[in-house]
Amino acid sequence: MFTAKECIGSVAMTFGDAPQGSPGHAKSCTFGCKWDGKEFIVKKWLLAAGLGLAMVTSAQAADKIAIVNMGNLFQQVAQKTGVSNTLENEFKGRAAELQKMETDLQSKMQRLQSMKAGSDRTKLEKDVMSQRQTFAQKAQAFEKDRARRSNEERNKLVTRIQTAVKKVANDQSIDLVVDANTVAYNSSDVKDITADVLKQVK
User: Fold this and answer.
1) Which top-level group of life is the source organism from (predicted)?
2) Which of 29, 69, 125, 135 could share a disulfide with 7, CB 3.0–4.6 Å?
């Protein structure tokens, strides 16, 4: 039996270069490979070819996978489309109305603190309570409507981004696109298509 060192040291040997103590060139090493010059070299070449094939397959797999930074992309698309300004303008009037009501309520509550008991104070207290209830109802409706519209616009952006991702993936023959923020680790060989997707968003 040959040792691993003897086997490794004889990789470059030809058929006639078997080490001493290997009559007939048919002994086996401790790894189970037969010492036959041609057979040994052929097996080594097959092993090298197999490793090369694995490396090529790995590289090809990397070409089929891409990452995209959805968080960064969403922010840039939102800025690009001006969705924040759209929502702000849409609710600007109602926000101003609520601000005015709040200022008026604060003013009346300050007046109450300096008023003595009497019919005028009682009347103002009822007015403040009624106005506070109205303010609370309008503020709740405002927040509900704004949240609904924000979700609607967000869904529109997501749809546009997904459409762009699909287009870029098809154009570049990519089989799988993964959000970079959800991956614990990605090799530098994996392509980042965030910039390409941003250009494609319409």
Assistant:
1) Bacteria
2) 29
